[in-house]
Amino acid sequence: MEPPPGGKERSKFSSKLRGSLLTIAPITLWMLAFFIVPIIIIIVISFSKRTIVGSIEYSFNLSNYGKVFNLNYVKILGNSLWISLETTLLCLLFGYPFAYFVARASKKYRSILLMLIILPFWTNSLIRTYAWMILLRTEGIINTYLMNLHIIKEPLQMLYTEGAVLIGMLYTMFPFMVLPLYSTIEKLDFSLLEAAADLGANPRKTFLKVTLPLTKSGILSGCLLVFVPTLGLFFIPDLMGGSKIILISNLIKNQFLQSRNWPFGAAMSIIVMLLMFIFLKLFNKLGGSKDKLEVM
Amino acid sequence: MVKLNHVVKVFDDDDHDQSHAAVNDISLEIMEGEFLTILGPSGCGKTTTLRMIAGFEKCTQGNIYIDGEDVSSKPPYERQVNTVFQSYALFPHMNIYDNIAFGLNLKKVSKTEIDRRVKEMLKMVQLEGMEKRMPDQLSGGQKQRVAIARAIINKPKVLLLDEPLGALDQKLRKQMQVELKHLQKQLGITFIFVTHDQEEALTMSNRICIMNNGKIEQVGTPDEIYERPATRFVADFIGETNIFEARFKGFEKGQVQATLEDGQDVLLDKSTPVGNDTICFAIRPERLKIKPAPADRDSYFKAKYKESIYIGSTIKTIVTLANGRAVTVSAPAGEAYDLSYRSEELYVTWNPENAVVIKE
Amino acid sequence: MKKNSKFSIVYNFIVYLFLYAPILILVLFSFNESKLNAVWTGFSLKWYKSLFTNETILLALKNTLIVAVVSTILSVMLGTITAVGMYRYKFRGKGILDAVLFIPIVIPEIVMGIAMLSFFSMLKDTFNFQMGLFTLIIAHVTFSVSYVVTVVRSRLEGFDKHLEEAAMDLGATPIQTFFKVTLPVIMPGIVSGGLLAFTLSLDDVIISFFVADAGSTTLPLKVLSMVKFGVTPEINALSTIMLLITVVIVVLMELLNKASVHRKKILKFACIFLVAIIGGSSGLAAYVHKGQSPQAELNVFNWSEYIPQSVIDKFEEEYNIKVNYSTFSSNEEMLAKLQAGSTNYDLVVASDYMVETLIKQDILQEINHDNIPNIKYIDPSVMNLDFDPGNKYSIPYMWGDAAIAVNTSKVDFEITGYKDLWNPKLANSIVVLDDQRAIIGMALKKLGYSINETDPNALAKAEKELLALKNNIKAYDSDSPKTLLINGEASVGFVWGAEVSLAMRENKDLICVVPEEGIFIQQDNFVIPKKSKNVKAAELFMDFIMRPEISVEISKAYPYANPNTAAWGIMDESILNDIAVYPPQEAIESGEHLKDIGNKIDAFDKIWSNVKK
Fold this sequence. Notes:
The structure holds three protein chains of three kinds. Chain A is mainly α. Chain A is about 75% helix and about 0% strand. Chain A has two domains: about 1-30; about 65-295, Orthogonal Bundle (MetI-like fold). By secondary structure, chain C is of the alpha/beta class. Chain C has a domain at about 65-235: MetI-like fold, CATH 1.10.3720.10. In chain C, about 50% of the residues are buried. In chain C, strand 1 (about 295-305), helix 13 and strand 2 form a beta-alpha-beta unit. Chains in contact: A-B, A-C, B-C. At the A-C interface, helix 1, helix 3, helix 4, helix 5 and helix 10 of A face helix 1, helix 3, helix 4, helix 5 and helix 6 of C.
C-alpha cells in the first residue's frame, strides 16, 4: 500500500514555500522600497545635471563624475582616505595590545573589563566628540590647567587642527576595533602558544607566526568596521576641525545642504559606495568573513 | 502495537547523500508491552527509523501503523507516541515542573490533576522536591530522568528513546539501564530503544532488531541474536566471534567434514547445510577450549600459540593457524592454562553444536 | 591563563583612562557652577534645572523616544521574522538577501542619509506627506533591522533543534511550538537585538540630520546645534542624562545574557524603566508647554541667533500658535533647504540678493501689506530697494554689515582694514564667516574691486589672496563666531557686526573696526514661500515682530541694525551709538549690497572649495 507519490511531496513543498514567503517577504519588500530604491535614485541623480537655480534636470550626462576627477576633489578624497587609514592603523596599533590583555585577564575581571569597553561603544559619538572639545579648547580644561601650573605660557593650539580631527575619529571608532579583536583573541587556544614555545619559538616569533595569523579575522573585521564608516562621519571634521578641514563627508553634505548641487553630491556618494565595495572585496580576499563580524 | 510496512526513506535535501536510501525497505512488527531495541552502527538508519515512527520524518514509501491505525501522514503532535531525546531537549526557559507538565497543559488537563500526576512522576523517577529547579541546574542523569518523566506522564502507547544514555558516564549508564528496564516493566508500555551499544541492547531488550545500511539484518531475542546470528554482519557486530570459511569435503563419522583455509580438516555438526561449496560458520571465543589433546566428541583443529591478554575476569588467548590467521579463545581467569603449552602446537576444540552456520 | 605583566596592566589602565577621562570630565562639569567649561567653581544643579524647563529640549527628547520606541518595535518584529525564516528555510537568493542586509552595517551613514533624503523629497509631493517623525522612523528601521537580524540569527545558531521536535512530540502544533518554545528560548536574543536597535536610534546623528525636519528634531540633533553654539554646560547635563540611559541599557543587556533565573524580573524592570522615561519626559514636556494644545502651527526659518526665544514664547502664548523655529547659517544653506523641500516653511528670512534669487525662481508669494499694519514703523530708506521694488514679496527685518573684531590684548598692531588681516602676526588667529560671498567679496574689496565682481581675472586674483590668507584663518564659523572671540580662540574676527557687538559685551578686550576699504551691507527680509500652509499666522508673526517693544527686545539680544523707527525711541542709547551695530554714515554710503550673480556662482563655488580644502 503506497501513498500516491505526488500527494505528500506537494503538500510539503507548498507549506515550506508558504513559510519562507511569510517570513522573508516582509523584509524583502522593506529593503527594496526603503533601501534599494533610494540608492537607485541616488545613482540616477548622479547622472543628472544641476540647473542654474540648483534643482535637478534629468538629462543623462557624466559631467558630475568628470568633476570628481578634478584635482581639488581628488585631493579631498585622498585626504579623507588618508585620515581614515591613519585612524584605522592607530586603532589597530593601540587596540590590539589592549584587546589582548583584556582577553588574558582572569575570568572574574574579564566581564567587567569587557563591559567597560562596550559602554563607550554604545554611547552617543557626538557627546564623546563634544567631551574632547571641552578638553582641547584654547580656554578649555587642558590649557587652563597647564597655564595655571605655569607649564606653558601661551595656550596650546589643539582644536581646529587635523590632529584634533584624528583624535576625534580615533576616540569614536576605537571600540569598533577593540570588540572584534577581543572576540577573536578570546577564542584563541592559548595552549597553541605554549606549543610554539615548547618547539623553540621566542615570544616575537610566536606572535608573528602563531598569534597574528590566528587572529587575522578579528583584525580584518576591526579594520573594516573602522575604515569604511569614518569616510562618512562629517560632524567630527565639522566640530573638531572648525570647517577648515574638509573631508569627503563634509563635501557631500555641503553639496546637499549648501551648494545645492545634488547631482555632484550624489556622484561623490556613489564613488564612496564603490570604494566601500572595493574594500569589502579586499576584506573577503584577505580572508575576512562577515559571520565573524560579531560586535554585539 | 507498531508496524512498519516496507518503509523506505530517501532524503531529498542538500545535507544528505541522495544516492542511496537511509532506510531501505524495512518491515518490522513491535508487540505491545515489549522492550525492543534497534541496534546498529552509526549511519545504519536506526535513528531515522525511530524518527519516522515519531513523525519527525515522513516515509518516502511504505506505511507505519500504531495500534492498528495508519499514522503515516500524521504529524508528531497527533501521534500517541512520545520521545526521549539523546540531548534531553528540556525547555531551558521552564522549570522542571512545567517541563514535565508541558504535554498535559496542552491537553488542558485540570490544575489539580496535573499537580497530582507531576508529583507522581517525580516520585517515580526519584526527583522529588526538584520541581522549581531549572534545567541548567541539573546533572546529566537528573536531566535524563526529567526527560523520561516528561514523556511518560502523557501515557503514550509507545515510548521512543533515541540513545538516551549516550552522554552518561559508565557507572551511571549501567544504573540507568537497570532503572529503565524496571520502569518499563512497571508501566507496561511499549519501549522502542535505539542504541549502538550492543551490551546495552543485550541487557535491556526483549527483542533486538539489528540494522545495517538501511536494512534489517536480524530480529530476535538477545539469546537468539547472540547464539545464532543469521548473517555475518550480526555475528561480527555482536560480541566477538571467529568466522571461518571452509570448503565442503564430505561426510565422516556421521558428521560433515570441511577443509579450513590452512588445509586442516574439521568436523561440523551433521545438521550443517551443505548446499554450497563453501560453508561459512562462526564460533564464539568462549566456546573454544585449548586442550593438550582433543576429547572424543570434540571438533578441533591445531594451532600455534601467539599471545595472551589479561582482561580481568577473562583471559583472551590468540592462536594462529598454519597460514597465520588468528583465532581468539577466551576463558574465565579462574580456569588456568598450563603455560607449558605455549610453544607447542595446541588443540583448539569445541562442541560441534556451538558452531553456527551463517549466511553471507 | 598566564597572569598579566605589570606593563600590560599599566597600558590597559592608560587606555581606559583615555576612553573614560573625557566622558567623566564632561559629567563632572555638568555639576559645575561656572558657565565656562574650564574651571571648577563649585557644585550646582542649575544646569539640570534649566534643562527640565527648556521646552525645545524636552520636545526633542519626546521625539527621540517616540522614534526610538516605534522603530525598535518595528525592527524587532521585522528582524525576528526574517532571522527565523533565514534560519529555517533554504531558498534561492538567500545569499543576495544576506549581502543586502550586510550593507547597512558597513555603509558610511552619510550615503544612507542622502539616499533617504532624495527618496523622501521625491515622494513627498506625490504622496502628500511631510518629512518628520514618520520619515525618521522609516529611516531608523532601515538601518537597524540588519543588526537585529544578525543578533537573532546568531542566537538561533545555538538553538537546539530538538526542542521544537520535543514540543511537537508532546502534542504542540507548529504555532503552539513557536509561541511556547521557540520564541521564549530566543527571547534574550530578540531583546538584545531590540536594545541594540533602540540605542542605535537614540544615538543616530548623521542619518537623522538629513531626514528630520523643523518640528521633529531629535535629541542628538539638538545636541549638535547646541554644540555649535556651545556656551553653557546645559549640554553637559543633557549628555550626562543620555549617558545614564545608555549605561542602564548596557547593564540590562549584560544581566540578560548572564542570568537565566532572574530573567523575568530583569525584563519586567527593563519595561518599567522604558515606560518611566517615556512617561516622564512626555509629562514634563506637556507641563512645560503649559498644557494648551495649539490651534495652528507656524514654520519659521531664520538665521541662527536672530530672534530670541523669549520673543517666540511671547508670540506663542499670545496667539496660541505653535512656532517650529529652525535656523540656517548662510543664505545658500537656506536656499538649498527650501529647494529640498523637506519642510513647508511659512515664513523665511532672506538677504537682499537672495530675495532676488527667490523671486526669479518663483518660490515666493506676494505679501499683503494691509494685513501687517505695523509696517508703518519701518524706515523708508530700507524700503523699495533694487532687489524687490515696491516690497511686493519682502518685508524688511533687520540689516547689518560685516565688521572686524580685534582683541586688543592679543593684537599689538593697529588694524584698520581688510588688508591687515593678511599680517603674518595673525597666523592661525582669525575667525571668519563661513560664507563664500562674504569672504571672496572681502578679498575682492581688498583688491579694490566691487564685491559683486565676476570678471575671471579679478576672481583669480581674489583666489590667490585668499589662499595666502589661509594660514591666518583658524576657523570658519557662521553659526556663532562670537564664541571664538569671547573665549579667546580667535584674536581677530571678520563677522557680522551684531556678533562683534555681542562679543564686545562679554569680552572687554574686544573692539570693532569698520574696514576702510568699504563694508558690505546685508538687508534681511521676511518672505513667504508659495508652499506656505499658514499665511495668516505668518502675517501675524511679522506684525508682532514689528511692534516697537518687541523690536527693542530683539535688538537687545541680537544687536543688528534695526529699521524700526518707533523702536529707536525706546532703545538703549549705547546700542544706537555702537558702530558695530550702526556703522558711521560714510561707511553706509560707501558700502555695497550683495547682488545675485546668476550662474557665475559656479566660479565662486570652485574658488571656495579650493580655498577651504
